[in-house]
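Late entry, written up from scratch paper. The run itself happened at the end of the previous shift, but nothing got recorded in the book at the time, so transcribing now.
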Amino acid sequence: MELSLIERALRIAALAHKDQVRKEGDTPYIVHPVMVALDLKTRGFLDEIVAAALVHDVLEDTDFPEDQLESELGSSVMEIVRAVTNDDSLSWEEKKLRYIETVRSGSEGAKAVATADKIHNAKSLLAAHKQQGEVLWSHFKAGKEKKIWFERAMLEMLKETWESPLVSEYESLVEEMAAL
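Output as recorded:
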């Protein structure tokens, strides 16, 4: 029996992220891409978009081979993954500006994965802030002010380029983070 695209993506994500934990605590990293993918699946997005959500951080955060990822999941998934992968050779601010532009010019799938990713990150940050308080911001390379700047810049781009209930949800979370 051949595995579904989503199951293949989940297996890759689980393998690639197996020893990683989230920034804000001891949560196994795999929880993040699963939650992003689940959000998109429950909203009726296509399997290619859900699969891309499962592996959206694989190129950026692991040494899983890009050619193997494309071979196992296909070019449609990879187009989305590439659009939402940060270029770590750049400075923090340049990297964030480039990310916004690659998502801006990306497909609806790229916008969906990027927004669902930001939503889950924001929810995780807000929950961690309740437990850790202001020390939470020390986990972020750029600190609170630049983190909020990036979230607002990302939000503005999404509001200009994509109509989706995900954008409204993200907007509420960005304002909640800014108010911390």
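The mean pLDDT is 95.
(Scratch paper discarded after transcription.)
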